[in-house]
Amino acid sequence: MSKKIGVFVCHCGTNISATVDVEKVAEEAKKNNPGVSYTTTYKYMCSDPGQKLLRDKIKEEGLDGVVVAACSPKMHEHTFRNASKKAGMNPYHVEISNLREQCSWVHPDKPTGTEKSIDLVRMMTEKTRKDKSLNPIKVPVTKRALVIGGGIAGIQAALDIADAGHEVVMVEREASIGGHMAQLSETFPTLDCSQCIMTPKMVELAQNENIKLYTWSEIEAVDGYLGNFDVKIRKKARSVDLDLCTGCSSCWQVCPSKKIKSEFDMKLGNRTAIYIPFPQAIPSKPVIDREHCLLFKDARKKNIPPNDSKVCRKCLDVCPIAPVKAIDYSQEDEIITEKIGAIVVATGYKELDDTSMYGEYGGGKYQDVITGLQFERLASASGPTEGEIQRPSDGKVPEIIVFIQCVGSRDPAKGCSYCSKTCCMYTAKHTMLYKHKVHDGHAYVFYIDIRCAGKDYEEFWLRAVEEEGATYLRGRVSRIYKKGDKLVVLGADTLTGSVVEIEADMVVLASAMKAQDDAEKFAQKLSIQYNKDKFFSEIHPKLKPVESSSAGIFLAGTCQGPKDIPETVAQAGAAASKVLALLSADELEREPVVAKVDRLPAPIFSTCIGCFYCKRVCPYGAIAEEDIKARDGSVIKTVARVNEGLCQGCGLCAATCRSKSVELAGFNDEQVYAEINSVEFS
Amino acid sequence: MSETKFEPKIIAFLCNWCTYAGADLAGTGRKQYQANVRIIKLPCTGGIDPLFLIKAFERGADGILVSGCHPGDCHYNSGNYHARRRWNVFRPLLEFCGINPDRIQFSWISAAEGGKWVETINSIVDTVRALGPFEGYHKLNTIGPEISGEAAAPSETG
User: Fold this and answer.
1) Which residue range forms the structural domain that includes residue B113?
2) Is position B103 within any domain?
3) Contact B86 A112 (CB under 8 A)
4) Does the distance separating the beta carbons of A106 and B31 come in below 8 Å?
5) Least CB-packed of A8, A132, A327, B43 within 10 Å?
6) F420-non-reducing hydrogenase iron-sulfur subunit D domain location, by residue (chain B) (predicted)?
7) Count of domains in chain B?
8) Torsion-angle region of A651 (φ positive above 0: left; ψ -120 to 50: alpha; else: beta)
9) Residue B82 with chain A: CB contacts under 8 Å
10) Which residues 71-100 in chain A show a CB within 8 A of chain B?
């Protein structure tokens, strides 16, 4: 395969030519290299005339391979490939010699730089000689999006995508959408009621015809690739038929199990066994908690189908729907497969509720030491106390309340070094809410630093101190212990250098935002990366903040890291716009740098021996087993095949293959050996 | 052949995402280092076949660097872990064959570590310069199967 290769050496102004003799490099490229039929140098190859020169010479000289010796391929590989494409040459016959970043800028001595440049150009010339024509891979796109998680991030992303005219499937594992935002009382820095701004969005989502909502459902498996995901959804048995049920509330009013701790109220209130999590729930239809329901408990004990148990059937008896009742004890989990083009992950966070590691704060033993979210529920008009601030142990209104910031955040000794970002602001909000409800009460706050970076945030915090009179003490609390019905908070005020002892009625811990308990398992299901704290990783912290490491999967909200509501909504909008860009095309084009398992004529078919080591190392599940069959249908052998849609082109399979049957396009063995062989060793 | 001073040639196999970008960053920062290195870019260190390294030695490289993303930072999730495992098996093999393992280094250099790239290159060049030229294969070619010094190189002909 003889090629006519053109070598274009760029001066880059003087960036290259000052320390590299570019003329000599061009001259040497031709010497002893019959494949190189044309060489030139040019002041700025990337400029418009430079690109024109490239295009013209490809045509005039009939080049079928090009080496541009210029800056890093990260800068202009794309530029020169495009230019070659315009001149009618396959763009994958263009290689870049990195003369600037990796030579002229780092080696000030001209003869040294020139010698190295000659080597670099020769290496790329040899690689170009082995380049094969590649064509972008076209992948069809299913124009539907999946949003995982029905909190504010998921809701925002789903609405944005649906409003642009695409179908959205939303999967929420709880019985209602709403997430943490629905639990909050008021929001900073405006103190507007959270539910008042949240519930209309929830209703909007439920009524949007483009959105298909699965609540009480979880993601079972995600297969496929960008534009073509097959998502298996487990619709958990709700024991209530959503189509029949009208949400009339008769059933949960008669349910005898009334003392189950409500998850929505952070265990400060109670719910029944058949329940809706909160009055504004969407869908406003109940679910039976099979763990606590008397009938299911009985059926489990006797090992009989739930329908045969006669212990309590009050909800079924009272259900007014006829002729078929909406309550169905025999319902089972259902697996549904949805075809999806792009995915938004908005699975949210979990509040640090296990304070047992904070033995010094009572380790979860003191009823009146509560978490931030529990305080939200106390302050919420829809909460267990209808908005009255009462301490959980005896319902007394606390006269002195202590807030402790950074519980589970910025505490490397407890294994959580990061800042949860929202606690400074929500604690300031809590002191205000407290003062608004308990006028003669006093709030103390122990803090490490006050981090109120955000629009109107600093002013908000100052209001808490200056207008509402909260006392901020800079220091950690070393111990909380009980004295009568009081909690003695022993801390330090590092600004005055004194020990502080406060007899408080209630203590609120500004507990950290943690990743969901199953975040790691979930990330593995989707093949996305996560950090040491199990928050999902964006692919670039600055320039690609919503893209996950898997193509077509985007991140929104606190599953990616702690953030407040405005930031969450902004990120959800960004994720939605990325999804929309993807769904706007009928076909996607992908770089053809993918692996391929060879196929040969019969009787060999492939040199693949079917060991499938490649399948084991592939991080993307892109290797499939393919049966090669005879005419009568009998399997002759089973060999590997690479799914081009899934393959990301890392080359792990090629390096692992024992029979050298896998080739990575653009970086095949021949090309690498050509590069190695072309280095001049003295 | 230069009689005056031995200048080693080092072949560096770099991953596209971290170390290659780190080497670019060293350039952008105008950080100078020794010019003895020739870079071969691959998508991922996990895609580096050990035979590439053997080939480089066979061709006359005096030293080899393999460098990729830090653990946990691999663009392809787990490629660098595979590279590390392969390296853990390959290194003792080289040692067994009589090649001084200092001639071949493995490192993690991120796209933000231009300085580390410079230090790594200078250190491997100095180390290999002190070791002298790698003549294992050349000796095999000229004097046949007799093995002397550190020249017990792997032979493709057996």
Assistant:
1) 10-132
2) yes
3) no
4) yes
5) A132
6) 10-132
7) 1
8) left
9) 617, 652, 655-656
10) 72-74, 98, 100
